[in-house]
Amino acid sequence: MTGLGRSYEDADLDYYPKLVCAIPFTPATGPRLLVRDTDHFEAATDYLIGGLQSLAAQLDCSGAHVLFPDKTGMRPLTKHGFLERRAVQFHWFNRGYASFDDFLATLTARKRKTLRKERACIEQQSLQVEVLEGEMVTSEHLALMYKFYQRTYLKRSGHTGYLNRDFFLSLAEQNTQLVLILAKDAGQYVAGSLYFRSKEILFGRFWGCLGEYEKLHFELCYYQGIEYCIHHQIAKFDAGAQGEHKLLRGFEPVFTYSAHLLRHQGFHQAIADYLLREHSLIEQYHADALNHLPFKQI
User: Fold this and answer.
1) Could you give the domains of the chain?
2) d(CA 119, CA 117)
3) Residue 87: which residues within 8 A CB-CB, separation 6 or more?
4) pTM for this one?
């Protein structure tokens, strides 16, 4: 939560350590309390949440935070006093499209023209795009992806990123879920996007580029992902956090959630009051985003 650590510091209290339940560095929604769907589901879930609270106290943490649980996973957490925070991401949904043109046909004429023009830029720059998956992805490809990742982070933020080369190389062991989309210029790889896939969802995670190419980011990070989902009949494309520019490209606003329990009752109540006000703003933002989708009115 923005500024919360500073507020603790101003009150002469320690915000760290705090206990976090999340997938590291990955803003992807999913189950966080891993309990089988049996007759004991509710009791086991309550037990896990109680353990989370006990561990926070035992380690003298300022609180416990569960990031990006699904909506179903939020209910038992709020029952145990966790505060619900909402945010908005933009996801693309496959509504049985037979091709990318089939998807484009659902857009207004102006938006359809914009997307076609952006995709045409790739051919006009004589760039070639390759889609690699499974055993097609080699250590050499992943080493290249690390180079792209480093270069882009350095340009954007002045450092080379939080993931190291060994992380990227280790992904070769997960190749059944790995999708790598690379771009070549004059036969040399110059950019790439890294994805992971499940049966139902394609997750876009990292992108990098060695030079400046018009609309290449949109091609590798959005349009190629959409085409991949259509070709493989994948239901949803989660391209990560942020990005209102995704609306123009058919990505729809969806709510995401996090749960927060602060052991200091004063701060817990103050955050509860703040979130009540924030919820209405997030609801309005979501509604406004829906009004900017590029789809034709039926």
Assistant:
1) 4-90+253-290 (no CATH), 95-234 (3.40.630.30)
2) 5
3) 255, 256, 257, 258, 282
4) 0.92
Tell me the pLDDT tens digit for each residue of 131-158: 999 889 999 999 999 999 998 888 777 7
State how far the Cα of 29 lies from the Cα of 193, in Å rounded to an integer: 20
Q: What is the tens place of the pLDDT at every residue in 89-141?
A: 999 999 999 999 999 999 999 999 999 999 999 999 999 999 999 889 999 99
pLDDT at 247: 95
pLDDT in tens, 216-262: 999 999 999 999 999 999 999 999 888 889 999 999 999 999 999 99
**Residue 99 contacts residue 240 (beta carbons within 8 Å):** no
Backbone dihedral angles phi then psi of residue 195, each to the nearest 5 degrees: -125, 155
